[in-house]
């Protein structure tokens, strides 16, 4: 099925030093940009994480410290990468829980404040799990009737995600709309304020704290009554994006219209 696109849609996959959004770093990124007219452009780049790659991570994606020692750090490619995906919606496999938050963290560390608030974020894994709960390898077998070769290489996983996504639209034509806004909403698991999901919206669009002793409380109420909480957030081991959203909330307290 040809995708019904209003904006270019970027499929991407990351290989990293680990799964900690604060401590770990990208070692490879592969991007497949699909244009509204169906044209495709792809880029794959290895990144020097500027920290050791743990052996257990190398065992998964096959990328060693030696492989990336002469590669550029993310900060060297951040601006050009941000420009290349400017105006694009984003899609991936488990992307809303990991790849998008990790990518945003790397951009913020590089001093590039990329705004994804108006982008459609489509998670092909969420669509898959709602329809046929399994893994990317199983999704490739189920939807595309082939074996996923070179699983856990960014390029193979990116291409497989794109192929599975198109096959999902073909298979579920009576349920899924070929519309990126619909698919972004369908593949969303929660209404996150920050990409790590520490802050979420409730049904009335209030920002709610989603962790710790204030879980379920309105963030603005907590920031008003617990004067040390914001400072603790800023000093604690949260993602830069989470801290950024807490800062925006704190600054909004100076607005007379903020309830």
Write the element-wise H/E pattern from the N-terminal end onward.
Answer: EEEHHHEHEHHHHEEHHH
| Percentage of residues in helical conformation | 40-55%
Largest sheet: 5 strands, mixed
Largest sheet: spatial strand order: 3-2-1-4-5
Which word captures the global form? globular
Number of strands: 7
Based on CA atoms alone, the radius of gyration comes out at: 19 Å
Output the structural class: alpha/beta
Distance between the termini: 47 Å
What does this molecule look like?
By secondary structure, the protein is an alpha/beta fold. It has helices spanning 55-61, 65-68, 74-84, 95-109, 124-131, 136-144, 154-171, 180-186, 219-225, 229-235, 240-252; strands at 9-16, 26-34, 40-46, 89-92, 121-123, 199-201, 207-209. Strand 6 and strand 7 form a beta hairpin. Helix 6 (136-144) crosses helix 7. The N and C termini lie far apart (47 Å). The mean pLDDT is 94.
